Amino acid sequence: MRHILIFVAGIFTVAKPALGEANGLCNSDEVMIASCELREKKGRALSFCSSQDKRTAVYRFGTVLNIELSNKFSMESPMSRWVAKWTYTTYLGFRINDHAYVLGVPQETYDAKAFVEITRNGLMIMNRDCLENSFGEMNLHNDAIQDLDDDLVRGEKFLFPPVGSIEGVGREP
């Protein structure tokens, strides 16, 4: 019996640390909107997080010990959210210069996985599945999130996130 306990203790010391527990890369005073641990050797993840007052949001990419990219959003400089009405996939995204960052979270169905797409000048530079689906507060109202109507995104030939402002885009009251 003693050998079994030593073996079990060894498993816990070797296991990799949890990715910020159930909060992804969000701080303890933030609400996780969505998160994705990437299917890769580096063990990186990305998270979209909301402030408690729901006035700002932040995107973080990297590991708990090394955030490689962080971007803050506000009402003046929002991120985008689109729910595709035919697939019920929620897309969260933003642009920085010539790069577009998108996290897609499909509806909760068996074996459906969230995914990440990063493009540069319209060309795919990263397309990875998440280890599992994200179960954050995908529908959270936040002043820093610009909700896009499905017909509008389809009318723009699925350009997401949009470049600049798209006429007819609004926020829910």
State the secondary-structure class: mainly beta
Low-pLDDT stretches: 1-21, 165-173
* Integer tally of domains: 1
Number of E-state strands:
10
Taken as a percent bin, the fraction of beta residues is: 35-45%
Percent in helix: 10-25%
What is the approximate shape?
globular
Q: Walk across the major sheet and give the strand order.
A: 9-8-7-6-5-10
Distance between the termini: 62 Å
Counting copies of identical and different chains, the oligomeric state is single chain
Largest sheet: 6 strands, mixed
Mean pLDDT across residues: 80
The rounded Rg comes to 18 Å
Write down the secondary-structure element order.
HEEEEEEEEEEH
Give keywords.
11% helix, 173 residues, disordered C terminus, mainly beta, disordered N terminus
What does this structure look like?
With 173 residues, the chain is mostly beta strands. The protein has one domain (20-155). The chain is built from 2 helices and 10 strands. It has helices spanning 2-14, 150-155, and strands at residues 30-37, 45-51, 57-63, 66-73, 79-83, 90-96, 99-105, 115-120, 123-129, 145-148. It has a 6-stranded mixed β-sheet with strand order 9-8-7-6-5-10. Strands 1-2-3-4 form a 4-stranded antiparallel β-sheet, with no helix packed on it. A hairpin with a 2-residue loop joins β8 and β9 (123-129). The longest helix is centred in the N-terminal third of the chain and has 13 residues, at 2-14. The protein is globular and about 40 Å long.
